[in-house]
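User: Reviewer 2 asked us to show a designed sequence for the structure in our supplementary figure. I'm pasting the structure tokens here. Could you produce the per-position amino acids so we can include them in the response letter?
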């Protein structure tokens, strides 16, 4: 938490405080899609991915509606960059969020599916 330098301490919520969250980012290989639910029924709900470490996980946040149609979704076998808060004890990224497609990273750097 960052506090404005001239602000006095006050109990409760105030605009004098700013919560700073740090993110990590990494690349992953897309190995499949998960079907969307609710608003995204019939569309891509999440990208099923594998990290260089071999950890398998899903990335559902960060995709814009246009990218959720199967014709516009990032292709299976492509590499993406995603951001996350931290790794779980099992090495799975917590709250992964799609950022972009990486055309400059080779899929051979990732474990085979």
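Assistant: Here is a per-position design you can include in the supplement:
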């Amino acid at each position: 938490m960052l506090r404005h330098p001239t602000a006095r301490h006050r109990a409760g919520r105030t605009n004098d405080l700013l919560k700073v969250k740090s993110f990590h980012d990494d690349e992953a290989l897309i190995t499949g899609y998960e079907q969307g639910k609710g608003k995204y029924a019939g569309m891509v709900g999440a990208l099923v991915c594998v990290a260089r470490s071999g950890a398998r996980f899903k990335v559902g946040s960060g995709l814009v509606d246009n990218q959720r149609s199967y014709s516009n979704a990032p292709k299976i076998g492509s590499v993406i960059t995603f951001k996350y808060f931290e790794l779980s004890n099992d090495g799975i990224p917590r709250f992964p969020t799609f950022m972009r497609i990486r055309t400059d990273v080779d899929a051979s750097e990732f474990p085979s599916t």
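For the response letter, you might also mention the following. The beta strands are 2-3, 17-18, 24-35, 44-51, 56-59, 79-84, 97-102. The chain has a mean pLDDT of 93.
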